Amino acid sequence: MASSAAAGRAAVYDAVFGADVMEKVRSSKVLVVGAGGIGCELLKDLVLVGFGHLEVVDLDTIDVSNLNRQFLFRPQHVGQSKSAIAAQAVASFNPRAGPIVSHHGNIIRGRMFSADFFRGFDLVINALDNQAARSHVNRMCLATRRTLIEGGSTGFAGQAHTIRGGATLCYDCRPKPVQKSFPVCTIRSTPDKPVHCIAWAKELHALLVGDAPNSVLYEPDDAPDHPPAAASSAAAAGPTAAPAADAGASRGESVYMRAVRRPDDAVCDDTAALAAWARGAFDALFRLEIEKKLSMGDAYRTARCRPTPLPLSRCHGFEAACEATLSAPLPAHRTPTLGECAGSFLSALQTFFSDPARRQAAREGRVAFDKDDDLSMRLVAAAANLRAITFGIEALSEFEIKSIAGNIVPAVATTNAVVAGLEAMEAVRALAGRDPADASYAVVLSTGISGGRTVSGDVVPPPNPACSECGRARVILRLDTKRLTLRQLIRGVLCGALGFEEPNILFAAAEAEEGAATGSHFSFLEDEDDASLLGLPLAALPAGGVTSGKLVTVDDFALDGARVEAVVVHVDCEGGGEEAVAAAVEVVGDFSAPEAARAAKEAKAKQAAQQAASAAAAAAAAAAAATAAGGDSDSDDDIVAEGSDADEGSDGSDDDDVFEILEGAGPPSPPSEDSSASRKRPREDEDDEPKRARLGEA
Ligand SMILES: [Zn+2]
Questions:
Q1: Is the pLDDT of residue 74 over 50?
Q2: Pairwise CA distance, residues 359 & 269, whole Å
Q3: CATH number of 475-591
């Protein structure tokens, strides 16, 4: 029955699209990136249409919260790989479809997702939920000249269109809305909306259990008179930590840093001591700090909401709530009481630090806020509400806080289904050879907005010439930024694979990057800069290091300024040895500039040598004639300098220049010496700008 239905469907598609197009559909290799809301729909559509060679990548495992709309998954699949289960599920939909290959991995960081992997497909289709992965797939498809079909949804709105380098705009041709952020002082001192309190709570999460130095609430606590052991025993005693904290207050510092310092093992393993530590942290954050700021007079001068210190004793019922939430969370859809917030905050901290694995991860700064981690979410929700109550701002349910904290727009299954259907249609059109710029689709399910039309079409705009991804030649450097050293990058990659001779590496710190002032740069030329940096992993270099997404410029004045711009993508080599780290390096895109410059340089040197030889013969003849005539053969340094400069900028075929060099500098240098002389790095003020300008025009 299923088989005859499939045969009937295939006959319909043959009639609609044409047998030749359907043959391409059956034989083409298609990569689907993402097996979530859109991916499940898309795989089903592609299999039903008759795509014969599908592969799917997803890094996630199935969560209970996926089951309502990611319809290929069932309760028994929770915890298993999304891509594997999705591939299994859709294979049964069409007995004529071939096997579907699934990959459980991160499309950005996974070692196997190299340029060759992408080149193995005729078509790539995105079914992703985040900008970083979309940008990466876009970049890889541009570099490997694959056609990409991009689609996405936000609530009731969605879109789908084809991207082909040079023919259409790419994913990054248009600026993306940046995640809304708030001034640090609003977060730290003057919140007036729930979202400010939630942002503060996420920073507090980092301070308490995550990467503390990266939190905007972090203040260095390096007073030498309070060694850590003394501090934690004082904190363990709870509010008695106040005198030490007040000493800090007199110096204008925040008073909570000592109280939120992570408890040591002796405290963590002692239930009573850990509970006391948690209360000490509560007291410092919600009472002492507020009291101190109020006493300073002008801290809240401009604040819309003035805070009231919150002693734990005012949080009625916190002890019972703490006890209850140690075993069961608060109801997610109801706004909790003050006592419940306080109890939930204390129990979340105790649960966190009584777990040795979480404790260790926290000490190593490895715990990042994840809205889907129940304990992290509980801590943030409780802290956000306590902060809100302190400032007289409305408290919210954990569900509401989660949707704000995770910037979640609710996913609508119907929008995903429409977007996936359009992507599948675009896939057939792409294989049929239709112009990729023909159609871009906007989906709006709410008819009030679109005037009654669910799907409207338009042409895909052309590439944006100013686009940083498709508007200029860039290479992608895939490597393990945490393990590959600067020396390995220079010797193995830049001088090895790319053919540089004396690469000069330059990158800038990203905005507000930890450990680097905004706008700071890193520039490195071996033999001139600090050699001790060579042994450092790329991520540990100054100016924020070389990390995923960073743009690195490499140029080489030994090769006439040959220049390559590279976008770095971090690839995990966990568990692999040094050889694995070196072997994992991949350069994608056009990096012919150094080789071309080297070839041009060698050709030029050869030509110069030939001309020098013939000019020397001519000069000898002229000198003989001049001697015979009694003429003057004074040299002139100015002319030599001009001649030398002009020669560097020209193709070296100007006989006058050659003659002047010969006249001033004596016998011609052999090519090898000439090239070593030109290796000198020009000073910025004299030669840098003209060279760069010339390269820019090329
Ligand atoms: Zn672009």
A1: yes
A2: 11
A3: 3.10.290.20
